[in-house]
Amino acid sequence: MAAIPKKVVERYVKTVSKFQRVLKIAQDRDVNEADTVSIAQDILAEVFGFDKYLEITSEYAIRGTYCDLAIKIDEKIQYLLEVKAIGLTLKASHLRQVVDYGANHGVQWVVLTNGIMWELYRIRFERPIDCDLVSSFNFLELNPRKEDDQQKLFLLSKKGLSKSIREDYYERVQSVNRFVIGAIVLSESVVNAIRRDIRKLVAGLKVDDKEIEQILINEVLKRDVIEGEEASKAASRVRRLMKKAAKKTAQKKPEQATAPKVSATSSSAQLPDDAERVST
Q1: Pairing of β 109-113 and β 76-83
Q2: What backbone torsions phi and psi does residue 81 show, to the nearest 5 degrees?
Q3: Cα(187)–Cα(242) distance, rounded to whole angstroms?
Q4: Which H or E element spans position 106?
Q5: d(CA 150, CA 218)
Q6: With contact defined as beta carbons under 8 Å apart, do 140 and 23 qualify?
Q7: Rounded CA gap, 87 and 36, in Å?
Q8: Is there a contact between 36 and 94 (Cβ–Cβ < 8 Å)?
């Protein structure tokens, strides 16, 4: 987990409960989108630490359309935010809208929110354009004194930008999840290891990799872990990274270093030739 500065934690403790009250009132009154945008701006400033007047831009123009909010630091857009009315449930169509904004402007990070629900996405500039959900939280359910909730807030905070927190967290989300673990379990190296261990249990027992793989697929792993789009992406990622790791290992050549020569005047005995070279 990221080390969050004490001042940032103190700011969370001071401001989160304040905006939880504001959001609850707004939710009860079912305020419109414009009012929700105003609340979101204040949250970005007071909770997440962005300068309301210099770093938070409203109605950001993108190819003839407008995104509700943008975070701009040193002339670079860090986030595009699409804000919906507090009473609306966030939908796939809303996500597509903000992803299109990001894709059209070359901004990789976007946020979709209705003030209460906050969803952080990272766009993948592929064909077709796609995105990954990196983090989501319900603002009303946050406990600013709880470390896990502080981490969720820090992902969106200005201070987190300078520490590359969002990129590091994205890599973790992509690498440590049930789909990746399922793909690793089904990988050749793991199946081989299982086969070897099974054969140790009973002398002369014959079992092949295919049989073990089928048992894992049909009887051990959950179906949704090994089937579907997320499972396919995870399997591709694991194959790619394992291939890359294997290539690096194959390219490594044993390097030899010469041990320091013993002086003829030294009282120590001369090292034999074989001991003068050590592998690194």
Answers
A1: parallel
A2: -125, 130
A3: 9
A4: none
A5: 40
A6: yes
A7: 9
A8: no
